[in-house]
Amino acid sequence: MQAVIRSFVSGGNVVRSSLLQHLRVINPAIQPSVLLSSRSESTQPARMEEHGFESTTISDVMNAKGKSADGSWLWCTTDDTVYDAVKSMTQHNVGALVVVKPGEQQSLAGIITERDYLRKIIVQGRSSKSTKVGDIMTEENKLITVTPETKVLVAMQLMTDNRIRHIPVIKDKGMIGMVSIGDVVRAVVTEHREELNRLNAFIQGGY
């Protein structure tokens, strides 16, 4: 997954360099810094801005996800059976559930994922209907978390380094949502595409 993101970054740099080289061929006297300065002062709609997926935050990702980001139904309790938890994942087409303490929905106890189910139930031959979520979940003190202000690339690095696909979003000691590696990749791809569109608009601006 990290290699995929690096390819987008590398591709964007190549395209940017090619476009600027194209401009220099048209007018060798024009330098990239001059182009950016002149364009920012233009009143035309197409503008070249300092913006890219390096500045995208987890908050941006959650806003893009909309209602599905609040996690209101993406939870179970430590007393629920693993069977019920996996059933909920299947029904909602997600790969992880937040685990809370019974009667304390805002009290994060841990997280249970498809990987937990495979490794701790299927492989070990245990019964999902008689095993409690609290027995196999990743406990709260072992969780890797991010905040809404965390940069997407930082979150991606955390997920890659720790080999996890879901990461809780914490604000003021309370959980406000969860993002997946898929959410992160989509955010990077979308921003990369928009950056290329901005470069194209800059080229079409008459210079």
Describe the structure.
48% of the residues lie in helices and 16% in strands. Residues 18-51 have low confidence and may be disordered. It has a domain at 58-188: CBS-domain (Roll), CATH 3.10.580. It has 8 helices and 6 strands. Strand 2 and strand 3 form a beta hairpin.
Fill in the keyword field for this structure.
207 residues, alpha+beta, CBS-domain, 4-stranded mixed sheet, two-stranded antiparallel ribbon, 8 helices, 48% helix, CBS domain-containing protein CBSX3, mitochondrial, CBSX3_CBS_dom, Diverse_CBS-Domain, CBS domain, CBS_dom_sf
What is the strand and helix layout of this fold?
Elements: H1 2-26, H2 32-40, H3 58-65, E1 75-77, H4 82-92, E2 96-101, E3 104-113, H5 114-122, H6 133-136, E4 138-139, H7 152-161, E5 166-171, E6 174-180, H8 181-203
Parallel strand pairs: 1-2
Antiparallel strand pairs: 2-3, 3-4, 5-6
Q: Can you give me a brief rundown of this structure?
A:
The protein has a domain at 58-188: CBS-domain (Roll).
Amino-to-carboxy terminus distance: 38 Å
Q: What is the level 1 CATH name of one domain?
A: Alpha Beta
- Total strand segments: 6
User: Major sheet: size, sense and barrel closure?
Assistant: 4 strands, mixed
Structural class: alpha+beta
- Poorly predicted ranges: 18-51
Average of per-residue pLDDT values: 75
CATH architecture of one domain: Roll
- Backbone CA Rg: 22 Å
Keywords: CBS domain
InterPro entries: CBS_dom, CBS_dom_sf, CBSX3_CBS_dom, Diverse_CBS-Domain
Organism: Raphanus sativus
Protein name: CBS domain-containing protein CBSX3, mitochondrial
